[in-house]
């Protein structure tokens, strides 16, 4: 490579440096190459190899340094993190609020059913009330808990033994955990998500029956559809979250670029 | 690199060689490169990009200052600051201690000091 050609190529390659660095140092760098050539203490081949190796390493280094100066500024990063934090809270709210509305709404028919049946059984007593057909009056026909979306009713005695039910699961009437009955004994009513077996989740409302023959009334309904909608809400909130983070990233890059330091 | 405070060592070979070269007095880019390449100057093969990138960062670290420019503004001259000189001294002391340790371990032959 002739000296003139090396110099021309080097002058062209200097354009690859970040602008602030190039403006400050390109003439001095080119002059340094001319001085090296004029001095001649380094053979032409060795000088060419040195210049090429230096170009590769220093270009990478200066561009990294420029990226750090442009996007690594504490104020810029602080703003990005604050915005990312706010968008995370918003996305959590976007999920949590509809999820709670959906979950609480899943109790609505059961609240009405359990209240009506409890009033009836309190009035007529559990045994007489069941004999009068209270379960089918306030509930539907037999419900398969594993597959049906219909609400159902179960009446338990004070020990938690099922006395009557409009629901079956695998041919039996399931019983909620004893802790639920303990809570209802002291608080009057409880609303729980009950999982009588794997893949069967029930929105259950349990109410106390007082009087001469105390017991409990449980009204339940499958959470399958509600949880599917909760899954959709989660997906939408996730998409919104990633979208907001993407916008923050793009905004930070654009703002960082337009406000980047103009001198090296 | 610190703006104030005690010198920060160890230095990179390039920064050490540049400081050592400028300890002699103010110099422009190619003279620094040439000094650095010599074995007694550190034996560091600096190209123009590495040299001016290092000088830029050393100016931000207050180790060197630009002391002038040639009339055609193509040669830029640099000199050490007081902090640069202290940093160089600290690095030389650090290296000297390491060399003494190497001698005591028999890695290097013992030399009498005058």
Q: Summarize this, please?
A:
Chain A has 264 residues and is of the alpha+beta class. Chain A has helices at residues 3-13, 19-39, 44-71, 74-105, 108-124, 126-131, 134-138, 178-187, 224-258; strands at 143-144, 152-157, 162-165, 167-168, 189-197, 200-209, 215-222. Chain A folds into three domains: 3-71; 74-101 and 229-258; 107-222, Beta-Lactamase, CATH 3.30.450.
Descriptive labels:
heterodimer, A: 264 residues, alpha+beta, Beta-Lactamase, five-stranded antiparallel β-sheet, two-stranded parallel ribbon, 9 helices, B: 114 residues, mainly alpha, Arc Repressor Mutant, subunit A, three-stranded antiparallel β-sheet, 4 helices
Describe this structure in words.
The complex is a heterodimer of chains A (264) and B (114). Helices cover 62% and strands 16% of the residues of chain A. Chain A has 264 residues and is α+β, with helices and mostly antiparallel strands. In chain A, the strands form 2 sheets. A 5-stranded antiparallel β-sheet of chain A has the order 3-2-7-6-5, with helices on both faces. In chain A, strands 1-4 form a two-stranded parallel sheet. Chain A has 9 helices and 7 strands, in the order αααααααββββαβββα. Chain A is rod-shaped and about 115 Å long. Chain A folds into 3 domains: 3-71; 74-101 and 229-258; 107-222, 2-Layer Sandwich (Beta-Lactamase), CATH 3.30.450. Chain B has 114 residues and is mainly alpha-helical. Chain B has 4 helices and 3 strands, in the order αβααββα. Chain B has helices at 13-22, 29-37, 48-60, 82-104, and strands at residues 27-28, 64-69, 76-80. A 3-stranded antiparallel β-sheet of chain B has the order 1-3-2. In chain B, helix 1 crosses helix 2 (29-37). The chains are: A alpha+beta (264), B mainly alpha (114). The interface between A and B is medium-sized, with 28 and 21 residues. Chain A: The chain crosses the membrane at residues 76-97, 239-258.
């Amino acid at each position: 490579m002739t000296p003139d050609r090396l110099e021309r190529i080097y002058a062209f390659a200097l354009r690859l440096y970040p602008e602030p660095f190039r403006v400050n140092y390109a003439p001095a760098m080119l002059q340094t190459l001319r001085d090296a050539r004029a001095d001649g203490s380094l053979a032409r081949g060795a000088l060419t190899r040195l210049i090429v190796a230096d170009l590769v390493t220093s270009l990478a280094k200066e561009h990294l340094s420029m990226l750090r100066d442009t996007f690594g500024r504490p104020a810029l990063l602080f703003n990005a993190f604050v915005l990312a934090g706010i968008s995370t809270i918003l996305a959590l709210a976007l999920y949590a609020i509809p999820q709670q509305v959906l979950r609480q709404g899943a109790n609505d028919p059961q609240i009405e059913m359990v209240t009506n049946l409890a009033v009836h059984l309190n009035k007529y007593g559990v045994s007489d009330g069941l004999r009068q057909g209270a379960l089918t009056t306030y509930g539907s026909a037999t419900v398969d808990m594993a597959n049906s979306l219909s609400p159902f009713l179960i009446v338990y005695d004070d020990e938690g033994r099922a006395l009557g039910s409009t629901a079956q699961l695998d041919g039996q009437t399931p019983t909620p955990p004893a802790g639920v009955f303990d809570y209802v004994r002291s608080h009057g009513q409880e609303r729980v998500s009950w999982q009588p077996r794997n893949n069967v989740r029930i929105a259950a409302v349990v109410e106390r029956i007082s009087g001469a023959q105390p017991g409990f009334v449980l009204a339940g309904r499958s959470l399958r559809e509600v949880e599917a909608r909760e899954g959709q809400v989660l997906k939408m909130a996730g998409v919104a979250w990633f979208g907001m983070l993407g916008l923050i990233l793009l905004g930070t890059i654009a703002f960082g670029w337009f406000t980047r330091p103009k001198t090296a | 690199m610190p703006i104030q405070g005690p010198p920060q060592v160890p230095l990179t070979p390039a920064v050490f060689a540049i400081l050592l070269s400028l300890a002699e007095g103010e110099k422009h880019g190619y003279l620094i490169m040439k000094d650095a390449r010599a074995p007694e100057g550190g034996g560091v093969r600096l190209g123009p990009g590495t040299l001016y990138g290092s000088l830029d960062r050393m100016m931000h670290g207050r180790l060197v200052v630009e002391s002038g420019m040639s009339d055609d503004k193509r040669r830029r001259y640099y000199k050490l600051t007081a902090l640069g000189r202290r940093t160089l001294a600290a690095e030389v002391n650090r290296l000297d201690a390491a060399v003494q340790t190497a001698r005591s371990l028999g890695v290097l032959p013992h030399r009498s000091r005058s």
